[in-house]
Description:
Elements: E1 9-13, E2 16-20, E3 25-32, E4 35-41, E5 89-92, E6 95-98, E7 101-106, E8 109-114, E9 117-128, E10 131-137, E11 144-150, E12 160-163, E13 174-183, E14 187-191, E15 197-200, E16 208-212, E17 217-223, H1 227-238, E18 252-254, E19 261-265, E20 273-274, E21 280-286, E22 301-303, E23 306-310, E24 333-334, H2 347-357, E25 363-365, H3 380-396, E26 400-405, H4 424-429, E27 435-438, H5 440-443, H6 448-463, E28 470-472, E29 484-486, H7 495-509, E30 516-517, H8 529-539, E31 546-548, H9 566-589, E32 598-599, E33 618-620, E34 624-626, E35 641-648, E36 652-655, E37 661-663, E38 666-673, E39 680-683, E40 687-690, E41 704-708, E42 714-720, E43 734-743, E44 746-751, E45 763-770, E46 772-773, E47 777-782, E48 785-786, E49 790-795, E50 808-817, E51 823-828, E52 831-832
Parallel strand pairs: 18-25, 18-31, 25-26, 26-27, 27-28, 28-29, 29-30, 41-45
Antiparallel strand pairs: 1-2, 2-3, 3-4, 4-17, 5-6, 6-7, 7-8, 8-9, 9-10, 10-16, 11-13, 12-15, 13-14, 14-17, 15-16, 19-21, 19-24, 20-21, 21-23, 22-23, 32-33, 33-34, 34-39, 35-38, 36-37, 36-39, 40-41, 42-43, 43-44, 44-51, 45-50, 46-52, 47-48, 47-51, 49-50
Domain Glycosyl hydrolase family 31 C-terminal: 594-688
Domain DUF5110: 709-763
Pfam family, one: DUF5110
Amino acid sequence: MExxxxxIDQHLxxxxxxxxxxxxxxxxxxxxxHLLRLTVKQGGAWPTHPTIPAALxxxxxxxxxxxxxxxxxxxxxxIITAAETTPLTASKADQVSVGAVKLTxxxxxxxxxxxxxxxxxxxxxxxxxxxWSLRLRTATLPHYFGGGMQNGMVSLNDRLIAIATENRxxxxxxxxxxxxxxxxxxxxxxxxxxxxxxxxxxxxxxxAEFSHDDPVCDVYFVIGQTPADMIRGYFELTGKxxxxxxxxxxxxxxxxxxxxxxxxxxAASAGAIQFEDGNWYKEYQPISDETFNTGFRxxxxxxxxxxxxxxxxxxxxxxxxxxxxxxxxxxxxxxxLNGEHDFQFSARAVIERxxxxxxxxxxxxxxxxxxxxxxxxxxxAGDLTNLRAFRDYAASRxxxxxxWTQKKLTPADPAHPQKGERDLVRELKEAGITALKTDxxxxxxxxxxxxxxxxxxxxxxxxxDRRPAIVTVDGWAxxxxxxxxxxxxxxxxxxxxxxxxxxxxxxxSLSGLVNVASDxxxxxxxxxxxIALRDLQWKALTPHFFAMDGWGDVPKLxxxxxxxxYKTLAQAYLALHxxxxxxxxxxxxxxxxxxxxxxxxxxxxxQDALTQDLTDQFLVGDDLLVAPLIDAxxxxxxxxxxxxxxxxxxxxxxxxxxxxWQQGGQTLADVSVPLAGLPAYLRTGAVIPLTLPHQNPAAxxxxxxxxxxxxxxxxxxxxxxxxATLAYQTGDQALITLMTKATGSDFSVTxxxxxxxxxxxxxxxxxxxxxxxxxxELSATLGDAPLAVHTTxxxxxxxxxxxxxPLSGLTIDCGVCDPAKRLTINVAGLRINATxxxx
Length: 839
């Protein structure tokens, strides 16, 4: 039989290596010395853009809203933004090289080596029925990661994964696929295609199998030494992740406030919700094609000649307070953005609830498409004015405004937009919105759809000198350039979702989708305040999360409507989140270097953590380990429970629940977690920039609080910019290095002078060194001059959780300091609290 991979011709031309078999033609080229491209085709011209799927069936999984706002895949936005600019050189007739990388082509195999050490063997692709398959094999068994947001999965070893839009949001589903996978051996593969794929890692002795429904095999190889190198290489190919505006690092609230009706009912009625006036109401929707509720729904009513169906809040017995002779309510109250009909049924009222309850909020999306819109006037212009009025009100309370969309962003006739149409440019420029969510009705077909949508919306925002603040789903390779990737519609009151979300966050982060988020307590259900609180507790230590309100059994308000003590604890964790914004924002700004904000436990080099079992804990940066409570194991009537296991990497760790030290390199078993607790640990030497707790972005204070953990030496970079515009791209930012240094019982904390074009104003600085006690000698300098500071031993200076945890140590009040000058604190003779030893 004829060997289809037998090479019959090979030559180097203009820096690219061409080779031919009896059945296809291949080409090797290089972007640089660590990014290589392999293209194999069966006749025809070399491709100018990635293949897009034809007549692709849309996966709906029972959700009829999916992909109703557009049709057909269209290529507008590239996956790859880099060009092959580095020529290959010939070493031998069958060998080419670039830098330290050599590629040898023999017998249908491409052997890749680095510094003459074998790295991987690439078995040249085979083709069948318009699809290609490619196998990679190494001498050792590597660990594979990537594939996009593979829900609940981090390590890909022993798995077959889909690179496909599934619109399946739960464990094992794929939310935003990325055709990119890489290994701990120092290489990765990115397929330049918009077609479905399947990656098989189930038999790594034979090799990893990559396949796509594409007649052209066009793949890039990423070569590097570390995991950060692999992700940074992916960014070199597809573009750096967007730097999101600062407001998006605060809790978001999403719902529709221009469509539904509320009817007065008795307190015992199914789905009844009590409002500020003391009365109980039930929510109903008008019947509409856009709302997808035209079919039979139990409980349909008629009010003033209009048919309404119940929202998802319960389907039991309902008793109306003011029925007519037919038993139907005489009156309903329609929601609005600005409270024209009744203020308590408005988006403005939501802002006031957050404010009055002391709950943090950064942005609000007051519509969701699906028949909502944003005004009740007779014209587009009138509705736009209504949106502007709401935006101004929200801005006066420190809250940003955004919109959802289920269909295109431009009117049919741009010069004459009609009521009910969208015009994103005018919404940005005239109404002043700053955020957008692309819903599954628009982008649910996936592949080119998601990438085109975020590119279109992002271009409009950048044209207004605004950073794209876009929440999307069903993304693809390149989505990180313009979007925050959302995990989709999970149910509330579900323990399983907590663990799944952790794996989803990590798989996305390791695939280049470094900006990730999900809904606190899901989108549906919601009657279990314990699960809602446990979900909020760990998400409060991540950059982005939302209250997805309007679809659950109860309103989703991040715990405002929860009974005591859940409400108080939710408020405290939200306050803690606002303190963490400087740290989280800085990690996100630096993620373009390849290290995502949320990292697997093994990220800093602990090989024992390279296991599929650690999908339910994560690092925030390198120094904060979070192990959420993910089930009801050991659950007591108080809400306290146990975490079955926590693995601590090598080194020493400060337990933030107990204020005690734990030795790393071990697994802690049956960790007790009180209701107010969250298993979280700081690495020795960690230096974390914080600020004072506050309710919204506009209320943030300039104060810098540095949490410096004694016992080792570490470094963190604080990034500061205007938080809104694109000015940082031309250097208008400040980079401030925070350092700790430990030598015996001596410990120092240094805040280096600010670097960059942005001038940072003088501000109060407080340094807190936890878990230390006893007298100590202390000296401080600001620039070249001694600095008088005030010191106290005792509880943390600011701790929203201080009522529930014993975190105490040395507080150093440095007064107002100029960031243009180096601040150094030297402490001698500190006594560190004893380490707790647990098996």
